[in-house]
Amino acid sequence: MVAAGILLSRIIGLVRNRVFAHYFGTSTAADAFNAAFRIPNFLQNLFGEGVLSASLIPVYAGLRAGGRTREAAAVATAVASLLGLAVSLLVLAGVLLAPWLIDVIAPGFEGEKRELTVRLVRILFPGAGLLALSAWCLGVLNSHRRFFLSYVAPVVWNAAIIVALVMFGNRRAQPDLAVIAAWGSVVGSLLQLLLQLPTVLRVLDGLRPGSLLGPGSRVVLRNFGPVFVGRGVVQISAYVDTLLASLLPTGAVAAVSYAQVLYTLPVSLFGMSVSAAELPEMSSATGTGEARAAHLRARLESGLRQIAFLVVPSVVGFVALGDVVTGALYQSGEFTREMTLYVWGILAGASAGLLPSTLGRLYSSAFYAMHDTRTPLRIALVRVSLGMLLGYGLALHLPGALGLGEEWGAAGITLASGLAAGVEYLLLRRALSRRIGATRLPAGLVGRLWTAAGLAGAAGWLLRAVLPPLHPIAVAALVLAAFGLVYFGVGLAAGVPEARAMLRRIAN
Fold first, then answer.
1. How far is 124 from 130, CA to CA, in rounded Å?
2. What's the CA angle centered on 17, arms 11 and 21, to 5 degrees?
3. Nearest residue to 90 via CA among 47, 54, 49
4. Of the candidates 14, 4, 11, 9, which has an alpha carbon nearest to the alpha carbon of residue 260?
């Protein structure tokens, strides 16, 4: 249900990005909008799904598992009150400090480009605050195993932006259209919150006012702090990427954003769905220490296999056929074939960290289920520090060393982030193994998955080479269908259990 909700919201999100690319391409207004959106998005991510899931769900689900439902509802109410107060203050600060925030996050922006970015930040900040509040709804609903609604809710947010762009896209200049799209984002944020709120109030049986700093609330806040800081440093890493991209030629910021939409799709669809579904299950484990450890190992190993089965072909697909994917989604209007190839290169760099970053989400969820938020924080600090150092070197120096144009430093930025994510995954796995015992993917399974994905990539590559000139969407439909069928067929022939399980689901 998590994957179904994410899939629907991501599909409409890809439609939104295609519409945006059609009207903006990699223009100055596109750079301004994407840079502006990152700043209030910092607030959403700090107080959003990851932080609240890690801090609220283990406490809330644990209380409900122990039969203390009224106390659980009181904790949820207190957390909502504290979150609303904190977000309101930060939204106000963001609106007032927007010019200084631009100087930090995009120092390469000047003149009208900088002024437009400041204006967009001030519009987008309140919407980000509403999205942070909707993440509280997600935490409550996930604890009740109501997964679909909270993950499909972003559909209305994306739809609001699409409607704004389509209604005014042919009648307004790009800077004015960027402002309209920003207001569409705010309206969509409100709709996303309102869509979830009635169900949340029903499962809570109404809000239960009580002490803001009761025992349960204090545990949530104690967990919240390290996760907040950990998510913050990871976000800082993302903003460093934007800062470096702003120093590259025009279009780099927008191109990195386009690539990240594609790169984060399998992370969200497969990694987030498994991690989100497993967190309340792992948090509800009872019994002796060894029994809980055995429960966690079993849940982890099952989740790791599911993630690998779906993410390994994503890596090969992005590297071998990234132009097919990018062209189908973006190549229209202002977005040219040259831009498609540029984004493909950036996407290929990001793919280096796709599998480890997705697996790392599941390991982090296991730590959160054990109420350990500090270990993921320490490891996140290592990842961010390494990513910054590598990002600077690869973005600003590697293109020249390879005889490439400066704009290709954007691919170095995403490659550095991917390598740092690989180090984070290895550190998380080693730390968790010390706590509950070894957990890892079977080497035989990994070999079969990469073999199947490699053969599928070769088949897709050959088919693309022999196809006549077609529309990018038609090419993608044929090539990616062949890629998927070959991967699935080889997986079945090789005896991959996840392929057989998927076949049974389809048959039923």
1. 10
2. 145
3. 47
4. 14
pTM beyond 0.90: the answer is no
Amino acid letter at 158?
N
Tokens representing 271? Answer: 């990694």
Residue 250: how many other CB atoms lie within 10 Å: 15
What are the structural domain ranges in the chain?
A: 2-441
The DSSP secondary structure of 205-223, one letter per residue, reads: TS-----TT-HHHHHHHHH
Q: What is the pLDDT of residues 26-62, one digit of tens each?
A: 788 888 888 888 776 666 666 665 667 667 777 777 7
Query: What's the 3-state SS for 383-424?
Result: HHHHHHHHHHHHHHCHHHHCCCCHHHHHHHHHHHHHHHHHHH
Instruction: Give the DSSP per-residue string, 342-371.
Output: HHHHHHHHHGGGHHHHHHHHHHHHHHHHTT
Q: Is 234 helix (H, G, I), strand (E, B) or coil?
A: helix
Distance of alpha carbon 503 from alpha carbon 500, whole angstroms: 5
Q: Profile the chain (508 residues) by mean pLDDT over runs of 10 residues.
A: 75 84 82 80 64 73 74 81 86 88 78 87 88 82 78 86 89 87 92 88 75 74 71 64 77 82 79 74 69 84 89 93 89 84 90 88 83 84 86 82 84 88 92 87 90 95 91 92 93 89 76
Residue 189 φ/ψ region, left for φ over 0, alpha for ψ in the -120 to 50 degree band, beta for the rest: alpha
> Model confidence over 461-497: pLDDT tens digits?
999 999 998 888 899 999 999 999 999 999 999 988 8
User: How many Å apart are CA 9 and CA 138, to the nearest integer?
Assistant: 14
Question: Counting beta carbons within 10 angstroms of the beta carbon of residue 359, is it exposed (0 to 12), middle (13 to 18) or buried (19 or more)?
Answer: buried
* Structure token pair of residue 51: 């932080």
Task: Report how far residue 139's alpha carbon sits from residue 124's, in angstroms, rounded to the nearest whole number.
Answer: 23
Which amino acid does the sequence have at 300? Answer: L
